[in-house]
Design a protein that fits this description.
42% helix, 199 residues, 7-stranded antiparallel beta sheet, 2 helices
Length: 199
């Protein structure tokens, strides 16, 4: 699996190069003495995470840490979910991890089959990173669209239900008056018949 003391690419067999990915975040810290939203201190740049991975210079395949891949997908979908909640088991044959030579498990990540080593991360063939991020973004948009449609249907059903309830309430208020009017009409008809028989 190793060539020249370097892990071999799972896609093309070439040597992998170690890469470090740093993610920095700007934090604006407002002290309690700040007046009307004015900051007395400039924003500080804080290192949010450092991930180590491997990349193939020949074909572009890469071994990406789980947290780094989850962060990329979270940024694309604007929702925070762990990578485990996004992966589904696949029946595809698995390859060996370029780092530890353990057998990786095949998973479906959105519409892409990827291999995952529990210890070293997810192996992405050339172009798969962009495909996964694009599919994640489309999936999030589709779910948001379905949620908006469901919300509109619930709102319309709720409006129909409130109209139905108000109609029932109106009938409930009118019903006693109708019963009373009917009883009065029957009483008047009975007294008119009685008078007619007495004549």
């Amino acid at each position: 699996m190793y060539r020249d003391d370097r892990p071999a690419c799972a896609s093309c067999g070439g040597g992998l190069t170690r890469v470090e990915i740093h993610r920095d975040v700007d934090l604006a810290i407002a002290p309690r003495s700040a007046v009307a939203g004015r900051l007395s201190q400039p924003a500080r740049r804080v290192r949010f995470g450092t991930w180590r991975g491997w990349a193939c210079e020949q074909c572009g395949g890469e071994l990406v840490a789980d947290d780094h891949l989850a962060t990329l997908i979270d940024a694309a979908t604007l929702e925070v979910r762990g990578l485990d909640r996004r992966l589904r088991d696949a029946t595809a044959p698995s390859r060996r991890c370029p780092c530890c030579a353990a057998t990786m498990r095949a998973h479906v990540l959105y519409d892409t089959v990827v291999d995952r080593c529990v210890q070293h991360g997810v192996w992405l063939d050339p172009g798969e990173r962009d495909r996964v991020v694009a599919s994640a973004r489309l999936d999030a948009l589709a779910r948001a669209h379905r949620g908006a449609k469901t919300g509109a249907v619930v709102a319309s059903v709720g409006a129909g239900a409130s109209v139905g309830l108000s109609a029932v309430a109106n009938v409930a208020m009118i019903a006693p008056m109708m019963v009373a009017a009917g009883a009065l009409a029957l009483a008047l008809a009975a007294s008119a018949r009685k008078r007619a028989l007495q004549r």
